[in-house]
Design goal:
Blueprint lengths: L3 E6 L3 E6 L4 E5 L18 E6 L3 E6 L4 E5 L18 E6 L3 E6 L4 E5 L8
Antiparallel strand pairs: 1-2, 2-3, 4-5, 5-6, 7-8, 8-9
């Protein structure tokens, strides 16, 4: 693998952003190692990837967020999807949840409620 500019990992998988803005994943599918279901969304324009123990969240150049991995740990962000379509400037992950900071200063959380995913 060449042209990698960032790598991050869950407890069982890795995700790498390449210089062209695409993301490559490998490892245990249960922990985000298989991103084939969302591959078109990760083929270009990714600026940042963040991980927690079981899932990944990627910020795209347009400020939207794409998630994959363990659904209970934030791999499924459908509950807050409307809030993650634009304006996200940074994403942080802990053991089982994510928090996104938006350009307007608001924060969006998702993932396990036990880890702060339900604010």
């Amino acid at each position: 693998m060449e042209g990698v500019v960032q790598v991050c990992g869950t407890v069982g998988a890795f995700a790498a952003i390449k210089a062209n803005g695409s993301v490559v994943t490998w490892g245990d599918a249960a922990f985000g190692g298989n991103s084939s279901a969302i591959a078109p969304l990760l083929s270009e324009g990714v600026d940042q990837v963040c991980a927690n123990n079981g899932a990944f969240a990627a910020i795209k150049a347009n400020g939207s967020v794409v998630t994959w991995g363990d659904a209970d740990w934030g791999g499924n962000s459908s509950v807050v999807a409307q809030l993650l379509t634009e304006g996200v400037v940074h994403v942080y992950g802990n053991n089982g949840a994510f928090a996104a900071i938006k350009a307007n200063g608001s924060v969006v959380t998702w993932g396990s409620a036990a880890f702060g995913g339900n604010s």
